[in-house]
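Hello forum,

I keep getting stuck at the same step: I have a sequence, I want structure tokens, and every attempt I make locally crashes halfway through. Rather than fight my setup again tonight, could one of you with a working pipeline run this one for me? It's a single chain of 316 residues.
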Amino acid sequence: MQKSRNIVVGYDGSVEAGHAVRWAARQAVLRGYGLHLVHCSLWPLLTHDLGPVAGVENSGLERSGEIALDEGLALAKDEAPGLKIQTSLLYGWAPEHLLKLSAGEAMLVVGSRGIGGFMGLLVGSVSLEMAATASCPVAVIRADDHPEGPVVVAVDSSGSAAALSDACTLASLTGAKLTVVHVQHAPAGFRRLRDPAGDGQELLDSVLRSARERAPGISIEGQLLTDTSIPRAILEATRGASITVVGTKGHGLIRGTIGSTAHAVLHHARGPVLISRRADRPGDGQENRNRYLLDEPTGADAFPGSNRRPQNGAPA
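Reply #2:
Ran it on my machine without issues. Output:
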């Protein structure tokens, strides 16, 4: 008997994590999956004094984790009444737990928790590590400003089959318009002496045919762009998108990288981003976790200027 699939979502009490829980709950309903809500606490690794303070109601480090989990559960129930929800309060390093729990599941959803500001880095370390190591698609959710916007998927010269499949699913589930973007890189100072479309248009046409077969009845358009910076062109194309979908075709020597383009899009996109991860073979998720390395955008692609306490939550 096949295991029923879940969408796993991490909740740490932040505003961004709240957005992630609500988004994950909606996706679980649309897909007919359950939701697995997870809260991780590092406190037991730092101190043994987890108990309450005498005379202070709801105090103590252990109770604070339970309160956070209950808060996330309330958000999920509010967003999707009747959804089957499982909860887990875990102790230890969050990426390690999320990596294990999401293996074989439909999707992992996390909040962004970046520093923002002048640097514009909108993704925190946990979200970035999950995007680089998980064995299932990873959705990184920040402010959901354009819920009615199109689903935008960026495809490279390979056609980005996994990203296209995930984007078609998202568009089909919500009825959103699907925009397929392919960017041709033009080095600075390079003058094209022929039609700038060339093979790029043939690739885009092929991807569009595949998308229309996968998502019949959905409005689908293609955009062939040329830019000195591939991430910049993608980010411009995703303004107003409900979600941006990118693949993880990294070219580094270390397994577990996401590639410079996906790295830049993940850091600078203003809306939700789905990283279309797939496990190459059993155990890849843990191997990637152990070999994790950030693949910083460089050159032409650079963006310019453990204890476990499972709890079974009853259906809402």
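Residues 6-311 form a domain with the Rossmann fold fold (CATH 3.40.50.12370). If your local run keeps crashing, start a new thread with the error log.
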